[in-house]
Amino acid sequence: MIGVNYGRLGNNLPSPYESIELLKTMKAGRVKLYDANPEILRLLSGTNLHVSIMVPNEQISAVAANQSVANRWVRDNVLSYYPNTIIRYILVGNEVLSNKDDQSLWYDLVPAMRNIKKSIDEHNIHNIKIGTPLAMDILQTSFPPSSGEFRLDIQRNNLLLPLLRFLNWTKSYFFIDVYPYFSWSQNPSSISLDYALFEGSHTYTDPVSGYVYTNLLDQMLDSVVFAMEKLGFYSIRLAIAETGWPNGGDYDELGANTYNAATYNRNLVRRITSQPPIGTPARPGSAIPTFIFSLYDENQKGGPGTERHWGLLHPNGRPIYDINLTGHVPDAEFSKLPQPTNNGPFHGKLWCVVTKDFVNEMDLGHVLEFACRRNGTCDEIAPGKSCYQPVSIVSHANYAFSSYWAKFRKDGETCHFNGLAVQSTIDPSKDP
């Protein structure tokens, strides 16, 4: 069964009822929530969808510190719906070990998992697994896969080993968020796009293990397997908490397009749903529970354009491309995909300008003020300066956004400005 992450940061998304009906239509087998939304859990009652719920990061410390808090969380978010709602996973936190600014939370993670486990055990519930989704940045090294090793700043004795012992003891899964898109787009000259998309005949042989890899996802998964084995854990199963490919992005975001997204996700579905299971070279024949990210494009997210384009569906519920999550529909039965135009580097000039559909000049004014706070950004739109004319909030914002982005892009700033800006190939000073 393939699952789907229920993205939550979109504007004017379909209702929970409509969303669940869409999941059924797509033949999803699982759905993963980033909380334990009561309305959604009620609506999932009586369906065949297997459900993953989450203890949000901000609740982990309280759950870890007090068994009664854990008991209350389980009562409110599990017992109120189970077993009519088929809850199969409780995930404690989301990418907790990626947040280096709050390392105290790291050490509350396993105690919180233990307290949740103790609470469900007291109710004789034995078919719900407890885990925590981690990102690939937990690894210090990942290539070749046999070199896989956990980050050195994550303490072995006080954190990693207790986590792995818990997963091993409870026969749970090591949940990993794994995105071949990022590995490929950061190294397109050394990694084949077809290899990242499960296409073509390219292979890679690990020089130490001798395992032969036919795709990038397997490489990344096995690097986690080898990291666990280096600490003495050889049988903890893998689950993919998030994976996918962006269907769009900014002009300079390589390979983010509908064609590649459909190709990746369709091939992923066929691979994961194969019977018997394929597994990976290091774990042949192992079934890997998998959740695609995400159900909807999340158009309220900040950051680069790809952040808002991982959905299988537009925010209005329309499919972005054809996909069937059973893996039984051949590509020939799907509508033809638009050919990609951005699989190579973008060489043109870019500006950051006000989006055409902005509606509130007051909001635009606040963001313009923010962009002009840093020294030198807006000097040329001051009265009497070269770019003061024409005097309009849009033209001034076009200058300020482009100036700010040009100056601070290298520091990670993006052309977004609370959703009021987009990249453009047209110089706004010459745009009629």
UniProtKB/TrEMBL annotation:
Matching SUPFAM superfamilies: (Trans)glycosidases (SSF51445)
Gene Ontology molecular-function annotations: glucan endo-1,3-beta-D-glucosidase activity
Record family assignment: Belongs to the glycosyl hydrolase 17 family.
Enzyme's top EC category: hydrolase
A family per Pfam: Glyco_hydro_17
KW Chaperone (keyword) present: no
Protein name (Swiss-Prot/TrEMBL): glucan endo-1,3-beta-D-glucosidase
PROSITE patterns: GLYCOSYL_HYDROL_F17
Signal peptide start-end: none
Highest rank taxon of the organism: Eukaryota
Upper classification of the organism: Eukaryota, Viridiplantae, Streptophyta, Embryophyta, Tracheophyta
Catalytic activity: Hydrolysis of (1->3)-beta-D-glucosidic linkages in (1->3)-beta-D-glucans
Entry keyword annotation includes Repressor: no
GO biological process, one term: carbohydrate metabolic process
Enzyme Commission designation: 3.2.1.39
